[in-house]
Amino acid sequence: MTKITGDESDEELIMRIRDGESDITDHIMNKYKDMVRTKAASMYILGADRDDLIQEGMIGLFKAIRDYDAGRDASFRTFADLCVSRQMYTAIQASNRKKHAPLNSYISLYAKMDGHEENMEFSLDQVLEATIDRDPESMLIDKENTRDIEDFIENKLSGFEQAVLELHMTGMGYVEIAKVLGKDEKSTDNALWRLKNKIRKYINKNSDV
Questions:
Q1: DSSP string, 153-209
Q2: Mean pLDDT, to the nearest integer, of 25-52?
Q3: How far apart are CA 157 and CA 85, in angstroms?
């Protein structure tokens, strides 16, 4: 049985695996399983099965252990987080079950509302709330508006913008999104601001009708 003192860094343990102590892999997999579960909980809103996401995340973690290069990559923790996120998102795309139904509860958009500064951040339901009264009939309009926005996203945002939006819905910032999608940070940040602006304009245009 391989002895692990607890004082060794992940990077040192990876080196021991490279030297043939393969059973250390189980130790690292167990160490990071809670990170995988937390990541699966955030990705769950994209419509995938949570257990399937955990399984995919553990596959991503195994790949991180296999592929980590201390001379090329950042810390193992950072590299593992990226591999797990990428594995989960690839699985979600492959399942072809991408849905925007949780949008109203999760996505945060920059939108100007009366009496507020333009760059304050509001959730989509707050933006809609500012345009209508909150009686039962208006609540129905609220739901219809949300469905219209979901259709707008499907038809008017580019594939890249939709991917950025989906990952943003899980709480990722543009830096992490860029890494998961294999894009540069500048183009990802631009896409995030562009899609927010498109949706904001759509909301404002339709609220004036």
A1: HHHHS-HHHHHHHHHHHTT--HHHHHHHHT--HHHHHHHHHHHHHHHHHHHHHHH--
A2: 87
A3: 23
Where, residue-wise, is CATH 1.10.1740.10 in the chain? 10-95
* CATH numeric code, 10-95: 1.10.1740.10
User: How does pLDDT run across 62-120, given as a tens digit for each residue?
Assistant: 999 999 988 787 899 999 999 999 999 888 877 754 454 444 444 444 434 334 444 44
DSSP secondary structure string, 25-85? HHHHHHHTHHHHHHHHHHHGGGS--HHHHHHHHHHHHHHHHHH--TTTSS-HHHHHHHHHH
Q: Specify the pLDDT at position 68.
A: 92
Write down the pTM of the prediction: 0.64
Residue 33 binned pLDDT confidence (cut-offs 50, 70, 90): very high
First-to-last CA distance in the chain? 71
Cα–Cα nearest to 198, from 116, 114, 107, 137: 107
What single-letter amino acid sits at 202? Y
Contact, 11 vs 75, CB < 8 A? yes
Backbone phi, psi, residue 100, to 5°: -105, 15
